[in-house]
Amino acid sequence: DARVTQTPRHKVTEMGQEVTMRCQPILGHNTVFWYRQTMMQGLELLAYFRNRAPLDDSGMPKDRFSAEMPDATLATLKIQPSEPRDSAVYFCASGLIQGETQYFGPGTRLLVL
Amino acid sequence: AQSVSQHNHHVILSEAASLELGCNYSYGGTVNLFWYVQYPGQHLQLLLKYFSGDPLVKGIKGFEAEFIKSKFSFNLRKPSVQWSDTAEYFCAALLDSGAGSYQLTFGKGTKLSVIP
């Protein structure tokens, strides 16, 4: 049963520290999405990749967030330096072709103190 | 800008009551529509999707949704809810951003609480 995996599942850190979240998309999927979910804003698209190339990262604060896909089996989302307002659940999703369903990972619950 | 609106933030129903959650999108072109469900403490799961064809779409767990193009709506329905349907429901629209790219835009979600 193929699924998207994310690590870590939970992260508590102090303000100013670097946070790295990892996502392993479903094997063979060529699009990867990063979302952030908060009570106030709901689900927000941060960035997405097709064939490892970033297509849209307009939803991401550029000064502290960065997203990369070093290879087809790994996507990373980094926050440096982290701030309390970054506390949220970060979801990764992957899909196969345009119009196809996105499959979500379990999320990384981040708390920045 | 493209957007997806869900009218109700929180809906409370008794078991066996009928459910309808509203969803509207603002986009005039081709759109694919989805409903996702998030049970407490879990990740999003797909309930149903509409790409083309019959505008009445049936999903898992007895849910269905109707695409009404003239109203830009994709409302979710279930004739009789159960306590286990307590969750947050997200409507989403896959919109063509142009130049071969696309974006999945989510509504802010509707919390459903079903009282036994």
Please explain how this structure is put together.
The complex is a heterodimer of chains A (113) and B (116). Chain A is an all-beta fold and 113 residues long. Helix content of chain A is 0%, strand content 55%. Chain A has one domain: Sandwich (Immunoglobulin-like). Chain A is built from no helices and 11 strands. In chain A, strand 9 (88-95) and strand 10 (103-104) form a beta hairpin. The mean pLDDT of chain A is 88. Chain B has strands spanning 3-6, 10-14, 19-21, 23-26, 31-38, 44-50, 56-58, 64-68, 73-78, 87-98, 101-106, 110-115. Chain B is globular. Chain B has one domain (3-115): Immunoglobulins (Immunoglobulin-like, Sandwich). Chain B is built from no helices and 12 strands. In chain B, the strands form 3 sheets. In chain B, strands 2, 5, 6, 10, 11 and 12 form a 6-stranded mixed beta sheet that branches. A 4-stranded antiparallel beta sheet of chain B has the order 3-9-8-7, with no helix packed on it. A two-stranded antiparallel sheet of chain B has the order 1-4. Chain B has 116 residues and is an all-beta fold.
